[in-house]
Amino acid sequence: MHLKRGQAVPNVLQPIRFENVSFKYNQKYVLQNMSFTLEPNKTTAFISQSGGGKTTIFSLIERFYDVTSGKILYGNQNIQVYNLQEWRNLFGYVSQNAPLLTGTIRENVLYGTKNCTEKELEAALKAAYAYDFVMSLEDGLDTEVGEGGIKLSGGQKQRIAIARAILQNAPILLLDEATSNLDNESEREVQKALQTLTKNKMTIIIAHRLSTITHADHIFIFENGSVSGYGTHASLLKEHTYYKQLWQTMDVQTI
């Protein structure tokens, strides 16, 4: 795979369109004939049972896998034509585990960012609702986080990861439900940080808790590798039986 070959990625953010996309892994189809559009400045959430293809969608968009059939378009071009390094630079990623590098908080927030001033660093921490807890630590920004961030709580690690994504300022955000492993207080803080992060971005969320994606512009439901429904939270609650069942059991179930 050649990172330096391919066309330049357009400067203006384009829609991402799946057209009859199927993907087969170990001879088993994970996705079948999927068609949908991801729009700039909109938040789209994906819901399915565990193993239903949500994570595969992310891998296909980022070009870690190639589709088995069909195509993924960025604007009117197949994403395969673009320079791979430029293509991946479009994406910021926050996962539910928020793994950190061994090193200091400063090094973790600045990872992947060039020419950042101290004011920009502090602004990112404040926007991520991380500044106060970082400054309360004895060594502040120079606090060692330990291997994988073991010295920080789950909510603290998430907010550091969000501060990093704010500094990187990628136009497309991939969120692997960043609050699913947090207690209620930490979840509230991270949700506020995510609202800042996702402003004026194309945001794509893998949803584990339905309560965190009620604000999404579009929600797609996958069943048996295909799209079985899409709409807003309100419309799906009225019209989609599976979504309604998930909502009714969401307090005791993650997906």
TrEMBL record:
Gene3D superfamilies named in the record: P-loop containing nucleotide triphosphate hydrolases
Keyword ATP-binding among record annotations: yes
UniProt xrefs under Pfam families: ABC_tran (PF00005)
Span of domain ABC transporter: 16-249
Transmembrane segments: none
GO molecular function annotation: ATP binding
Keywords: ATP-binding, Nucleotide-binding
Keyword Nucleotide-binding in record: yes
Classification via PANTHER family: ATP-BINDING CASSETTE SUB-FAMILY B, MULTIDRUG EXPORT ATP-BINDING_PERMEASE PROTEIN YGAD-RELATED
Protein name as catalogued: ATP-binding cassette domain-containing protein
The species this protein was found in: Kurthia gibsonii
